[in-house]
Design a protein that fits this description.
244 residues, mainly beta, Immunoglobulin-like, 2 domains, 6-stranded mixed sheet, 5-stranded mixed sheet, 17 strands, Ig_sub, repeat, Interleukin-1 receptor type 2, disulfide bond
């Protein structure tokens, strides 16, 4: 059940969650500087040189509960150590504010820090925050860049490429670290952002990386995600291993 829940979370992060029924009324938020302050987002860890999109899903969900969302509202995203280049982020340049998201094209180590997203509409002001850490290499992240997924031998697995729904991922490819993904007949199949494994075996355990070329403003940027597949159980001795 826990493994199924973890995989469901990754799928929702890859594709987006479906709309559900209205929830209970939101509790009152704390105030700071005349603005209601939403709980901070989960921190984000990304690689230097890749395209990065900072979103504020928890913040936006609180706005929906407060019923304050509006096309006429003003959104402002700023880094906590000062506004970008002397003013608000614009919709051009390496770092761009696009509505309620911040796009880093590409991200640099110096972009690391805390960011605040502020929503204003007449007398309503709500703010949220997120912390970004950009590392120069995967080795500098000490394994923290990987999303763990647990499965049992024999399961049919759709392994999703997490958090890529903001990008054009028509050129997405998978590899099993440290080299290219072995692909004997029937062992692997790619479907959209998922790597399909019809019947998981012990040999499938390990680290996988999905990479895509994101097309943004007539330029290409690399985006990658790592997933660690942890396999429980023993192979059926009557079946051959999918690869060696």
């Amino acid at each position: 059940m826990v493994r199924l829940l973890l995989l469901t979370v990754l799928l929702l992060r890859a594709h987006g969650a479906p709309a559900g029924p209205p929830g209970p009324a939101a509790p009152a938020l704390p105030m700071e500087g005349g603005c209601s302050v939403a709980p901070p987002e989960d921190g984000v860890l990304r690689l230097q040189g890749e395209a990065v999109v900072l979103s504020f899903p928890m913040f936006e969900s609180r706005l929906e509960l407060l019923d304050t969302a509006s096309l006429t509202a003003t959104w402002l995203i700023a880094k906590d150590d000062g506004m970008a280049e002397g003013g608000a982020y614009r919709d051009r340049g390496r770092v761009q504010q696009r509505a309620n998201q911040l796009w880093l094209l590409p991200a640099q180590v110096a972009d690391s820090g805390s960011y605040t997203c502020m929503y204003r509409k007449r007398s309503v002001c709500v703010s949220g925050s997120i912390r970004l850490r950009v590392v120069a290499s995967r080795s500098a992240a000490a394994g923290q860049l990987s999303y763990p997924v647990g499965v049992v031998v024999g399961e049919r697995l759709c392994l999703p490429c997490p958090l890529v729904r903001d990008f054009n991922h028509t050129e997405l490819t998978w590899s099993k670290d440290p080299g290219p993904t072995p692909s004997p007949a029937g062992s692997f199949r790619q479907a959209g952002v998922c790597l399909l494994i019809p019947a998981v075996r012990r040999a499938h355990a390990g680290a996988y990386t999905c990479r895509l070329r994101a097309h943004i403003d007539d330029r290409q940027y690399e985006v990658s995600r790592s997933v660690t597949l942890e396999v429980e159980g023993e192979d059926d001795e009557d079946e051959g291993a999918p690869y060696r």
